[in-house]
Amino acid sequence: MTEYQTQERAFGTFAVFRVISGTPTMTIASQLPRRDRWVLLLLDGRRSVAGLARLTQRSELDVASTLARFLQWGYIEPVHTVEFRTVG
Residue 76: helix, strand or coil by DSSP? Predict the structure, then answer.
């Protein structure tokens, strides 16, 4: 299976991620290339892959590839849709 197919199955354009609690975001960000740094700093647990692509003016595939690396390195985790529900 190619890397693209693996990423495509892992999450879609509406997937949402957040930085894992306790991760030294600014330290990590300072060591990343600018294009990856922006993605990491924009992760807030509410922005989708599509939203991140729009904000960074990159393709969804390019953003998904960056997120896949962050997942592999253990910097981020997916946010499940249940966590978006509000008590009303």
Answer: strand
